[in-house]
Amino acid sequence: MTAYVLRTGRPLWASPEKVIELTAQGEAEDLGAPSVDWMRVPLQIDGKILGAMVMESHPVGIRISVMDLNSLTLVSNQVAVAINCKRAEESRKLPQFSIDHADRIFKMRDKGRPAYANDVACQFLGYTREERLSLTAQDVDPNLAREAWPNYFNQLCQFGSLTNESTRVTKNQSLSTQRSRAIA
């Protein structure tokens, strides 16, 4: 019965007679324990079926009605929206995780302070993210003159990103040569 709903995208409320009819037509398979009533509702967003919600009544005397089907359909719409939101949230985590753990990446501002520094860049220099964001490019690159920054930033804006190799001063004041990517 569930495969029928997943295939058709339509809710199904079926009595034993309806199950026999659908099975005889080859539209559905009757699998599982016998029930008095079967109800299947697709979890659907924009015509895309994510799954199904299932309800069955087993004891004789307790029946599922069309009102129950309508209620389950309303609930399934909300569940589908929640699933879709959770999937969207999860899909946003991967790009951010990739940025945080990729090569050393800085998003620079016009005054030479980073708006963002990924985990790898901060760890390489020995700073916490908050500490690194409080420092200017000149604080960590002794070879970058303050007067050279506007030209560098203009190139950064023109090309969108720049990759360079330079000497950096780490938190413990040691010098380290690193390759990093700055993005505008």
Q: Strands, helices and their partners?
A:
Elements: H1 2-8, E1 12-14, H2 16-24, E2 37-45, E3 48-57, H3 66-101, E4 105-108, E5 114-117, H4 119-125, H5 129-133, H6 137-140, H7 149-159, E6 161-169, E7 175-183
Molecular structure report:
By secondary structure, the protein is α+β, with helices and mostly antiparallel strands. It folds into 2 domains: 2-92, 2-Layer Sandwich (Beta-Lactamase); 102-183, Beta-Lactamase (2-Layer Sandwich). It is 43% helix and 26% strand. It is built from 7 helices and 7 strands. It has helices spanning 2-8, 16-24, 66-101, 119-125, 129-133, 137-140, 149-159; strands spanning 12-14, 37-45, 48-57, 105-108, 114-117, 161-169, 175-183. A 4-stranded mixed β-sheet has the order 5-4-7-6. The longest helix has 36 residues, at 66-101. It is rod-shaped. The model has no long low-confidence stretch (mean pLDDT 84).
What's the total count of β strands?
7
State the order of secondary-structure elements, H for helix, E for strand.
HEHEEHEEHHHHEE
Gap between N and C termini, in Å? 55 Å
Tell me the structural class. alpha+beta
The value of Rg in angstroms is: 30 Å
Q: Which sequence of strands runs across the widest sheet?
A: 5-4-7-6
Q: What number is the mean pLDDT? A: 84
What name is given to the CATH topology of the largest domain? Beta-Lactamase
Helix content: 40-55%
Notable characteristics:
single chain, 184 residues, alpha+beta, Beta-Lactamase, 4-stranded mixed β-sheet, 3-stranded antiparallel β-sheet, 7 helices
Quick overview:
The strands form 2 sheets. A 4-stranded mixed sheet has the order 5-4-7-6. Strands 1-2-3 form a 3-stranded antiparallel sheet, with helices on both faces. 43% of the residues lie in helices and 26% in strands. The chain has 2 domains: 2-92, 2-Layer Sandwich (Beta-Lactamase), CATH 3.30.450; 102-183, Beta-Lactamase (2-Layer Sandwich).
